[in-house]
Write a structure and sequence with these properties.
Strand order of the largest sheet: 3-4-5-7-6
Number of helices: 6
Largest sheet: 5 strands, antiparallel
Order of helices and strands: HHEEHEEHEHEEH
Shape: elongated
Number of strands: 7
Helix content: 25-40%
Strand content: 5-15%
Number of domains: 1
Structural class: alpha+beta
């Protein structure tokens, strides 16, 4: 008995079915990836809403709240100024862990205050991490539910100097991973987004330009900043970037 060979029509049908399956799987992965990326902005909006509610309730910014111990008690730490104590200094600036502000770090109390006010989920130590584990890490900063990054409140006039008065003068946001260290210019060893991902976010939620608007992508390699930057000085995207990007978010989106 002879084996019956497949006809050209049958082979064509199999190829079409395989192509459709491949397209469906690829489309499914792309939809999941796009959903995760869109969730970045969703989380930032949720943080912004929590800050506004906190400000309404306590007439202060979380982290900067000088009466925090009175409201939150020992769960927040001692009745003394940050970083060792629970209280902020109520100057409208959420002091971060930079070299110039180590004595009055409030950025870690920021997340703890929001949690103790029942405005966000999670558990936050309220204190700075070790150099080995990263000053900002998953124990003291907001860790994304969707992707591998932390949301870090970054206080620096250098951000405004870089991107102009359009940026918040003090309180801005860096979306970076858990290896974030002390200084903005030598931050992550490993950024959370690819160049294509930050381009998607900027195009979807901002102006699609790397060096203007509310979202500014920044390379994780600062030693050769423009050589492997996410965006060049002429306003073009560096789609050859291989090291990834973190995302600087204008605090006016979050704190106003």
């Amino acid at each position: 008995m002879k084996n019956k060979a497949f006809s050209l029509i049958e082979i064509s049908i199999v190829i079409i079915i395989m192509g459709l399956l491949f397209f469906s799987v690829s489309s499914g992965f792309k939809m999941i990836e796009n959903y995760k990326l869109k969730s970045v902005f969703k989380e930032l909006n949720q943080v912004g809403d929590a800050i506004k509610q906190f400000n309404t309730l306590y007439e202060a910014l979380p982290g900067d709240f000088h009466d925090a111990y009175f409201y939150f008690g020992d769960a927040c730490g001692s009745d003394s100024p940050a970083p060792n104590g629970c209280n902020g200094n109520n100057d409208g600036i959420i002091q971060d862990a930079g070299r110039d502000t180590r004595s009055s770090v409030e950025t870690f109390r920021f997340w703890q205050h929001l949690k103790l006010a029942d405005l966000i989920d999670g558990n936050f130590s309220g204190v700075i991490g070790s150099e080995e584990n990263g000053y900002h890490n998953s124990e003291n900063s907001y860790n994304s539910k969707y992707m591998n990054y932390n949301i870090i409140v970054y206080t620096s006039t250098r951000t405004s100097n870089l991107f102009g008065s359009f940026f918040h003068p003090y309180n801005n946001i860096i979306v970076d991973n858990a290896t974030y260290k002390e200084d903005y210019w030598t931050s992550s060893d490993d950024a959370p987004f690819t160049i294509r991902e930050v381009y998607f976010l900027d195009s979807k939620f901002d102006d699609g330009e790397p060096l203007t608007g509310y979202l500014i992508p920044e390379s994780s390699v600062i030693v050769n900043r423009w050589g492997d930057a996410c965006g060049f000085g002429d306003g073009s995207w560096n789609f050859n970037n291989q090291t990834g990007c973190k995302l600087i978010v204008n605090g006016k989106l979050i704190f106003n």
